[in-house]
Amino acid sequence: MQLIEGKVISDKIRNQLKEKIQKISKPIGLAVILVGDDPASKVYVRNKANACQQVGIQSYMYNFPADASEEEIATKIKELNENKDVYGILVQLPLPKHLNERKILDYISPKKDVDGFSPYQIGRLLLGEECLVSCTPQGILMLLDAYNIDITGKRAVVVGRSNIVGKPISLLLLQRNATVTTCHSRTENLSEITKQADILVVAIGKERFITGEMVKPGAVVIDVGINRGQDGKLYGDVDFETVAPKCSFITPVPGGVGPMTVTALISNTLKAAIDGN
Ligand code: GUN
């Protein structure tokens, strides 16, 4: 079993991105909007700001109070859409309940949608065209590529069908010529399907849900989950203890997929800057 070291790969790719960014003469800005003070979101936003600084991207942070109105946020997004130095705009999710996520996200110019959440970018992904791909799925592909893991012809099973992870990673794996099955909470006989996976991607937000007997010997297991256990420790959606001994490759939690998400965001921001606005 080989551990997929997200932190190591992430550092390496960030250094490559930094070199590319240094060669671009214009300032590259990324705007991040946080509404409210959800502790996890605050950590994610801080990580994004730190990564920007590390690679030479100018970050613009906007923290709205939890009771901010759609109009206030929309006004800021529209202003950022017009700002020539800003190539990427993202709204940290989840938003407070009174705000409609889809409506807020739809204010972002699709060209600046570095999260790849817009119908425009998702549509291009479905068509197999160049696009800004949602960061976590893109980070997963970066990991598979970094470890030279073959995708073509392989049986890939994705557990989870969210718009942020499950659906886009299913499309990306399909595009890379895997035979893809997307499972979810209503899937019958789940373990019969997961047991067929050469590549198993799990993004369901249920602590240690996938256990050893659900995994094929020699599988590559990608764990997207980050769950805080009752003991205060972080656990993935995969029960590492029973699954790891059966795998050829597995991502740990923390230190697997997590660091790649922010690296993919940097990569998307650079891409948006090269494409221009
Ligand atoms: N919340 C959890 N994951 C993400 C993400 O990838 N982007 C944004 N904007 N919010 C998130």
Structural topology:
Blueprint lengths: L1 E2 L2 H17 L6 E7 L3 H17 L2 E7 L5 H13 L3 E6 L9 H5 L13 H9 L7 H12 L8 E5 L6 H10 L3 E5 L6 H5 L4 E4 L17 E4 L3 E2 L5 E2 L4 H4 L5 E2 L7 H18 L2
Parallel strand pairs: 1-11, 2-3, 2-4, 5-6, 5-7, 7-8, 8-11
Antiparallel strand pairs: 9-10
Features:
binds guanine; six-stranded parallel sheet; 40% helix; three-stranded parallel sheet; Rossmann fold; alpha/beta; 11 strands
Describe the protein's architecture and organization.
α6 crosses α10 (258-275). The longest helix is centred in the last third of the chain and has 18 residues, at 258-275. The model has no long low-confidence stretch (mean pLDDT 97). The termini are far apart. It is built from ten helices and eleven strands. Helix content is 40%, strand content 17%. It has a six-stranded parallel β-sheet. The chain has a three-stranded parallel β-sheet with strand order 3-2-4, sandwiched between helices. A two-stranded antiparallel ribbon has the order 9-10. It has two domains: 26-109, Rossmann fold, CATH 3.40.50; 135-258, NAD(P)-binding Rossmann-like Domain (Rossmann fold, 3-Layer(aba) Sandwich), CATH 3.40.50.720. It binds guanine.
How many domain units?
2
- By CATH, the architecture of the largest domain is named 3-Layer(aba) Sandwich
- Count every beta strand, where a strand is a DSSP E run of 2 or more residues: 11
Into which percentage range does the β-strand content fall?
15-25%
Q: Work out the radius of gyration.
A: 19 Å
Q: Structural class given helices, strands, pairing?
A: alpha/beta
Oligomer: single chain
Note the total helix count. Answer: 10
Structural shape: globular
N- and C-termini, Cα separation: 45 Å
Order of helices and strands: EHEHEHEHHHEHEHEEEEHEH
- The low-confidence parts are none
